[in-house]
């Protein structure tokens, strides 16, 4: 009996200790891992949100770039971290597509993480080198089909947003093109600007300023409605490629086993950050908007991830572009 009472007492003390720790969370800086290089679209989004979350949480939220393998290295790093709320992951749609794209992953996509909430859904733009001949999207599709063995489509690497959008574009036009993977968005855009590659499909967070400056040619945006920041750019539906709508959504994750009270606190801080006037304004300049409060929740992110895995699985399998 004494042993039982002692065990119960120890359990009670542990419970009180845990509750106390949760009440004091966070007591030190929090790291958000971005599984891509610094300066890219996901990194830009993360730094804006991290700065605002720091104010609400009362601790600095720092960003660490752990790039490589289409985002899976950074995701794996977080999956193996202590579930204490001090190491998080901000990943985009690649979190869903990597489940099919990679034959072997160091983590179980649906089983290795807890969910904090959705951050934003960034539109994609179909762009090309400035001197590419076609004047509109219909002309681009005809040109690509007629020159499928020589037209090059740049992307930031297997699993990157530009790779996924490029696959979707080729699926939409029913024509495989020559894909040219780079080690990051920066090098891919540099070669597009220099005319070394023909086409790229990338996030507005990376293309808006180039489009506005006239340094690349823009054909369409992959949204149902035109964007305020690019009002003259037609949607894919308007431009003659109906059904090619895709947004690169971003979400925040924590390692599996992170206490629900911690993820809820992080979710609340995220919701506050997404209403921050500076975040809203900067997102608008980049052609995107913060997720609404109802989507910046654990349940909404979990549902989004599950549905997107199901959506992209047949597209990736049909393209046959797998990574080891």
Automatic annotation (TrEMBL):
Q: Which family does it belong to?
A: Belongs to the UPF0065 (bug) family.
The residues forming the signal peptide are 1-23
Q: Which UniProt keywords apply?
A: Receptor, Signal
**This protein's record includes keyword Signal:** yes
User: What protein name does the entry list?
Assistant: Tripartite-type tricarboxylate transporter, receptor component TctC
Gene3D superfamilies recorded: Bordetella uptake gene, domain 1 (3.40.190.150), Periplasmic binding protein-like II (3.40.190.10)
Q: Which organism is it from?
A: Mesorhizobium australicum
Say if the entry is tagged with keyword Signal: yes
